[in-house]
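Table S7 (text form). Paired inputs.
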Amino acid sequence: MLRRAGGGPLGSQGQTRAGADGTMRPTMSTPERIAAPARPTTLRRSVCASRTVRSWGLARVVLLAGLAASPAGAQQNDADDPARLFESTPEQFVVSNAQFVLMHELAHLVIDEKRVPILGPEESAADYIAAMMLIRPRAVPPEGSDALLQVAINTAEGFALAWRRRERIGAELPYWDNHSLTVQRFSTLACLLYGSNPKRFAILVERLDMPEARARACVREYERAAYAIDWLFDTFARKETDPPGAPIEIRFEDPPTLTSVRMRDAILRQGFVERTFRFFNDVVALDEPATFVMRSCRLPQAMWLPETRELVLCYELLDAYMAMSLERSQLERGGDEPGD
């Protein structure tokens, strides 16, 4: 079985398939002979979605402005202030998105390895598993649960930026892609965040034009997702009496660009790859060894390859996230994307 490339914001840009030699090759995400929906419908949906993702950027700017204006003492006393979760450096933005991609691909590994029953697209299931591991973690990292929430928020922002980029260049919507549209992946993450703590994340309803009915549904959606992730771990987690699972080798190949060198070093410095796999091995006992490798793939993507049992994260994806972070910085300064 071959897994579709790309768990992160660029996941809906195209597809890959295995050639005769087993290598990954890009394919078009929408066959040309399949007609797209009528243009007026697409435009109407696009305008609504564009307003939503632009509101996300506005919400972030408003929260950060509030954080800067608050007295230091008030900031220290209000541990639930969501503004802190929206505050991140370009490096943190890139590393956070890479962390979500890693967890998304690990979800594919679990689904394959344990034959987890799912109803619906596997890519959507992997998104939900990755999101809930951040919002409702089985184990809290040393830096606290808010660090994982910040990963979720940076990832949602990555989806929003990817959608805005598609709109800016006039790219066709990949209706036949096996990932949801990036704007849908963005809204799913925002919905789960709000549903997990409506009081703390009320700003999302206020600034994202989220209908009240949808906000109420988000609470139920989070509750269902929480039940599902708990069932997943309770059913497939390694028992204390079980032997340790097969090891996961971690390998970093040489990065091709200065940006990817810098981001690789940041990933190594933060140690989230080792920490994630250590937790994964404690919770899920693999039947056979697997390998995580960061390498150059010529395309910004990530993938789980069951045939070779490799989880690959491409350095080009880190370069793409850094480009997004530069766009984000420009938006924060009150500008718009290049070319607008």
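Next pair, protein 2 of 2.
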Amino acid sequence: MPEMPRHDLPMKVALLSVSLMIGSQTAISPALPAMIEQFPDLSRNAVESLSTIQCLPIIFMVMASALLSERFGKKRVVAFGVALCAVAGFVPFVCQDYAVILVSRLLFGVGIGCLNGLAVSLVGDFFEGQERATLMGIRSSMETLSTAVLSALVGMLITFGWQWAFVIYLVAVPILIAFVTFVPDRPASTGTIDVEVKGDSGHVINAAVVGLAVFAGLACMVVNGFVIRVPSIIEGGGMGTAAQAGLVVSVTTISGTLAGFSYGALHRLLGRHVITLACALMAAGTALCYRADSVLVLGLAGALLDFGWPLIISHVMNAVPERSAKGSATISTAFIVAATAVTSLLAPTTLNVIGATLGTVSLAAPFAVYALMVAGLGVWWVARLG
């Protein structure tokens, strides 16, 4: 059976750098408290949703992108997505009207949807075995690294005005140039991995993939809930400023970057129980977030959460080629990404619904529920999914 051809470092860097855009989605969260003050006639949920509303078109576009890639090729669809992210992401810096910002975030979501699932499946297309597992972890690290660096940058930029938060999306320009220059149109044909969609069999989403999608989606909702809510917890609780909130988000996501780079080694050591470890860490992180009374404790909570999430998504995506139906890896990956987009979209509303159900005004209260949920996910993995 022929082996996958080897690819040079510039190609790998260009391919993995696309995931920096995926991680930029919630990087504007440090600007949310100032934006809530900017729009006093709107509800907190309406303003907080600007950091997640892009998930609505992502839900549809990640599925559509799998089909569009059959007609136009994965490289063209991804390149279009990165270009759209650059333009739509920058619009709120130019115009601060809520309706315009809302539309621009939706268009930004279309761009993310074009590249989200394909950025993952391309790693499976070009690589296999332990190299694929390692690069899946690094790809996940690119997302968390992006959130860390860009959140810190946003925390500094918003001292000039909250609209400056959206300047960060110009990072898409060099990413687009590198991707177009170094990533081939398609991998060389081999007999090791069936990555092409062929006939009806290429559109089958089996029960195993559905289980992985539900698992990843719920875990993603927890992590996004933390990123969205922690700035308000810090400022509302008198723990610190918006700049400090941005620093907390960025510092905690550094642990996610380390987790992604560590995934390959942890996968070799623990196998399927990488997920067990991840759920234990995330359960501890959400419990700490609920009890946090200082920026330091919130930072520790975020570090635990952001170490666990990349392990989960890396392991889930690495499992897709083996657990999906033959010829359905691309559409299965898109389905899982769509599931995480749905739960990301619902994250702000879920936080508010849980708070209302518990009858409390505490912004941290939902994380007590999340701690129990993540622990339950760990049990589910050990008993059924793993």
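The chain has one domain: 9-385.
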